[in-house]
Amino acid sequence: MTSVAETLRAAEAAAAALPAVVQGAGTAVAEAYPTGAVPSMDSFMSSGNTADYYIQPEKNGYLQIDHKGALEEIDASIIVSEIRAVSMIRYGNPAKYYKTYNGTHATTGESWGAILKMAHASDPKFRGDFPSVELIFVNQKEINFPKLDLIVPKGATLGYTPTATTKRLAQSFIADVKSKGLDAVHVKLTAEKMKNASFTWGGLRITAVGPWNLDE
User: Fold this and answer.
1) What stretches in the chain show pLDDT beneath 70?
2) Is 86 within 8 Å of 161 (Cβ atoms)?
3) Residue ranges covered by each domain of the chain
């Protein structure tokens, strides 16, 4: 079975192999990206999991699910060997995010080359793609916000993909559980406030609680 470290290295290699952007004189940029490619059945079959809900860690220290609610923590579990590496981009204001599993098509089905071209053309600060991981957690305790029409049952899947500025939290978790020889892990999810000289944002802190009994 491929380790998470090997998967991350593969993602970095795939990112390095993507078509280069050649910066010419002035502001002109010469790109050599394929555009208009149609997703194949192979690319569909190799695509990753789709979670039932998605987690958003907020800069105020709370977690949201599908942009609803305010949770101090989430009780969840994850199988580390099933974490999947992706290449990801962020561009624009407000920020837009895209990711790819294969360097050919985004998870939205669009040509990855066409998306890179669009990002370079629309955002002069765009710095290219970066390696990340797709995390799919299993919720272990029902979450209920009836006034917000949000009920997340036990057993539902919760998705999260770290950005370039938050991926160190996922790296820390993965390194920790690998050092302990854990694969199926019971975890506590919390929002961590992160900041630099100009901005404040939220990242997902993943704390291993112990082994996860898959028979539960």
Assistant:
1) 1-49, 216
2) yes
3) 4-211
Answer yes or no: are the C-beta atoms of 63 and 137 closer than 8 Å: no
Q: Give the 3-state secondary structure of residue 192.
A: strand
DSSP result, 76-92? EEEEGGG-EEEEEEEET
Q: How far is CA 33 from CA 21, 98, 113, 178, 209, in A?
A: 9, 16, 5, 37, 45
How far apart are the C-alpha atoms of 105 and 40, rounded to whole Å?
A: 9
The predicted structure's pLDDT at residue 113: 93
pTM here is 0.76
Closest CA to 125 of 91, 98, 153, 159: 91
Query: Which pair of tokens denotes residue 24?
Result: 């010419």
Average pLDDT value for the chain: 82
Q: Under DSSP, is residue 191 helix (H, G, I), strand (E, B) or coil?
A: strand
> Each residue of 3-22: pLDDT tens digit?
444 544 544 444 444 333 33
| Chain Cα centroid distance, residue 167 | 8
Residue 118's φ and ψ, nearest 5 degrees, are -65, -40
